Amino acid sequence: MPGRDLRIEFGDSKIDQGLLIAPHGGGIEPGTSEIMRAVATLGDWAWYDFAGFLRQGNKESLHITSTRFNEPTLLSLLPQTKFVVAFHGAEEMGQPLACVGGKWKFGRELLVEAINASFGEHGLRAADATEGSVAYHLRGLDDENLTNRGKSGEGVQIEFSREARNLLFPPNASREARGRRSAHLRPLARALHQAIQRLCQA
Q: Fewer CB atoms inside 10 A, N or C side of the chain?
């Protein structure tokens, strides 16, 4: 039921510059709403959150793939923005890792650099999802992917592994842990905010 089991929220300040989205937020891909909103708050960026709040089975019931996502509110926002930065949660990868994909090569490079420069020493590292053996669905290269549907036709998505989200919301990115959060979240959000500022100037 919308409003109880599912919440759709957004803010459109500065939407012409960029849009931050968590299309699998709440319990669908735990931690992604919180990371996205932490970044959006720092820069007063435009944002969108599609969040599941079922007691269980959020991903099974509410996950819509990024190439088929058809929620009307988000579809109305995409044509208004220059580019999109999407926040996602991947499954276990054996380490705290952020796979940065999307068609915007400069955007990928900048966000990888920002995460590694400011957060690598804390155990979370970033890698370009379009290189190496990263699974195709984490690369975000399809034209129909939400990430690439801003005015420029190129965007960036960040897939945070389960281990990365556990690091940010210890011990297991549960609903209770996401309310507590760790001291690592703010420096990560600040690094991403500063990188997005540079993307707006590109």
A: N
